[in-house]
Amino acid sequence: MLGERQFLPGYCLLLPDPVVPTLNALAGAERAAFLADMASLGDAVLAVTHAVRINYAIYGNQDPALHAHVIPRFHDEPAGSQHRAALGVRLGRCARLRRGPPSRPAGPHPRCTRKVAMSGGPA
Q1: What is the pTM of this model?
Q2: Of 105, 74, 100, residue with least CA distance to 6
Q3: Per the domain annotation, does 60 fall within a domain?
Q4: What share of the chain is helix, strand, coil (3-state, %, to 5)?
Q5: pLDDT tens profile 34-79
Q6: Distance between CA 69 and CA 106 in Å, rounded?
Q7: Is residue 52 in a domain?
Q8: Nearest Cα to 65, choosing from 95, 103, 30, 35?
Q9: In angstroms, rounded to a whole number, what is the distance separating the alpha carbons of residues 14 and 85?
Q10: Which of 34, 45, 57, 75 is a Cys-bridge partner for 10, taking CB atoms 3.0 to 4.6 Å apart?
């Protein structure tokens, strides 16, 4: 999912399907597939944005669902921001996972993300 609020161009979230609480909740093959998908998403973002590198982050301290942040980093970022984690400043405003009643599934907050097509696949 492409982050609706692009604090850095190309910022994305990767969520597993079905949603699980942590990376450790995935069995070996599913875990390997999630991490491979994370790297593939990073490759695509790198190719499209021409970033210097991609930072990857999986936290889970506040949100009840596994999700990976894929963050492109650029040479021309504002002074001082190249030496700190991009998410440390902006994560709370740009990648909230909704916490609703049990009838409402965990997942990305609808105002913060939108689906994008990858490699010609469905959006």
Answers
A1: 0.66
A2: 74
A3: yes
A4: 30, 20, 50
A5: 999 999 999 999 999 999 999 999 988 888 899 999 999 998 877 6
A6: 16
A7: yes
A8: 95
A9: 18
A10: 45
Distance, in Å, from the CA atom of 50 to the CA atom of 40, rounded to the nearest integer, reads 15
Total number of domains constituting the chain: 1
Does 110 map to a domain?
yes
Angle at alpha carbon of residue 37, lines to 36 and 39, rounded to 5°: 65
Percent of residues, the chain, with pLDDT higher than 90:
47
CATH code of residue 7: 3.30.428.10
Residue 76 is part of which domain span?
2-114
Q: Which two tokens stand for residue 37?
A: 């998908």
**118: nearest Cα among 43, 54, 17, 35:** 43
* Beta-ladder partners of 71: 55
